[in-house]
UniProtKB/TrEMBL annotation:
GO terms for molecular function: phosphorelay response regulator activity; phosphorelay sensor kinase activity; protein kinase activator activity. The lineage of its organism: Bacteria, Pseudomonadati, Bacteroidota, Cytophagia, Cytophagales. Residues 235-447 form the Histidine kinase domain. InterPro entries: BphY/WalK/GraS-like, HATPase_C_sf, HATPase_dom, His_kinase_dom, HisK_dim/P_dom, HisK_dim/P_sf, MASE11, Sig_transdc_His_kin-like_C. This is histidine kinase. It comes from Marivirga sericea. One of its GO terms (biological process) is osmosensory signaling via phosphorelay pathway.
Length: 454
């Protein structure tokens, strides 16, 4: 197989050279010619060597010479680089034409000469064009007609016409020419259809390429706008923190210094200002965190089980206060962005504990399922659940349910969605009101290639 592969490669380089992508029918004609030479040369010893021996034993010296020359021509066509491709085809057709007439001359009507003439016409149509094939049919028709007339009138003493019947000769020749014309005509119809398909395919490819380029351009613009938006959010959030700190400080200072001088209503108003500024500061911190997700991220292989164990310690006070239980088993090692992934689990666990039913201990289960191209994680709780009409909205930024009952900024699940997306996955929830929730998210196994393409 090694030598066969090297042989094929050498012939392709010699005959086809650096052929371009499919542009028209010539590509397929060239490929067909390459394969004809490839297999003809490879299997020629099976025909040429016995032909040489038979020619020598029967005394047909001209057939002996023709067999040797044919093999030499095949070698030149296969391995002699300077010959142009069209010239190779013409040499090949000419060689077949000479072989056909030599066989016809030496072996007469009973030999394979007429079959070779027929094959020359078909091969010409396949590797060159229908026009050349029709010209060959015309030349063969004229020559065969002259031979037929010579059989009848014996103008020349030719071996090929001795002992032949004019009726038989013209009967065979007419059928041969008729079949040649029909087959060439059929091939031409097929080739025209194929050429039309190739042209249409090229046009479609051009349209698709243009559309793909437009999509890529739009994606690049969108990425730039997203980056600008993130930068804007980061700048605004950072710049607003300073006046907020001043508001908090002055509100606290006023309350503490002038508590006795201020009426109760004034103290209440200042307390509202202080509480609202603290809530806005928390919101800005969350917005900064959201803008920073995915920046400067580093891939690594880490244990999800170990992350959950660390989160149990980090959230220990919240877990104790709510009598929560976290159950997990068989959590895998994955490749991803460890810090972001930990934040993802932290948000989901904190939400599961926070949104608990009154007077009922919360139980959270974490599970992982391995898929062909991703890991699927499930975080299930027995909390208050989520109504179906809210299940898609909860992942949008600043969207909050139960504003009056549960504290929060509305960025936790938006953070989760963004983290899952940089891991090449998706996140969704299945839930019924008062029957708990199951959050699903996937993490791509092909993060290495994603980062290269991204």
């Amino acid at each position: 197989m090694k030598y066969w592969g090297e042989y094929k490669t050498r012939l392709a380089e010699t005959i086809l050279g650096q052929q371009e992508a499919i542009q028209n029918l010539s590509y397929y004609r060239n490929q067909l010619f390459y394969f004809i030479v490839l297999y003809t040369l490879a299997f020629s010893p099976l025909a040429i060597v016995p032909g040489i021996i038979a020619s020598y034993l029967t005394g047909f010296v001209n057939l002996l010479i023709l067999n040797i020359l044919t093999f030499v021509v095949l070698l030149l066509l296969a391995f002699f680089s300077p010959i142009k491709l069209r010239t190779r085809k013409l040499i090949f057709i000419s060689t077949l034409f000479i072989i056909a007439w030599t066989l016809l001359y030496n072996l007469q009507l009973e030999g394979p000469g007429l079959i070779y003439l027929f094959s020359v016409t078909i091969v010409s149509c396949l590797i060159l064009s229908g026009k050349i094939a029709y010209r060959l049919i015309f030349v063969n028709s004229v020559l065969l007609t002259i031979l037929g007339l010579n059989i009848e009138f014996q103008w020349l003493k030719l071996t090929i016409t001795e002992g032949q019947s004019t009726t038989t000769w013209f009967g065979i020749v007419v059928n041969l020419i008729f079949l040649s014309i029909i087959i060439v005509a059929c091939f031409e119809v097929i080739f025209r259809k194929l050429e039309k398909i190739i042209v249409q395919q090229r046009r479609l490819n051009a349209i698709v390429n243009q559309d793909n380029q437009k999509i890529l351009d739009a994606q690049n613009v969108l990425m730039e706008k997203n980056e600008e938006l993130n930068q804007f959010a980061h700048t605004i959030a950072h710049d607003l923190k300073e006046p907020l700190r001043s508001m908090q400080a002055f509100a606290h200072l006023t309350i503490s210094k002038y508590r006795t001088a201020l009426p109760e209503k004034g103290q209440e108003f200042l307390t509202y200002i202080q509480t609202s500024s603290e809530r806005m500061a928390a919101l800005l911190d969350s917005l900064l965190d959201y803008a920073q997700i995915g920046k400067g991220k580093e891939k690594s292989v880490f244990s999800v089980r170990k992350l959950v164990e660390e989160l149990e310690k980090d959230l220990s006070q919240l877990i104790r206060e709510n009598d929560a239980t976290i159950k997990y088993n068989g959590l895998p090692q994955i490749m991803g962005y460890e810090i972001e992934f930990k934040l993802l689990l932290q948000n989901l666990l904190a939400n599961a504990i926070k949104f608990k039913k009154n007077n009922e201990d919360i139980e959270v289960k974490i599970k992982a399922n391995e898929k062909d191209d991703s890991w699927e994680f499930l975080v299930t709780d027995n909390g208050i659940g989520i109504e179906e009409r809210h299940q898609e909205k909860i992942f949008t930024i600043f969207h909050r349910l139960h504003r009056d009952k549960f504290p929060g900024t509305g960025l936790g699940l938006a953070n989760c969605k963004k983290i899952v997306e940089i891991h090449g996955g998706k996140i969704w929830v299945e839930s019924l009101a008062n029957q708990g929730s199951t959050f699903y998210f996937t993490i791509s196994k092909d993060l290495e290639n994603m980062s290269k393409n991204g």
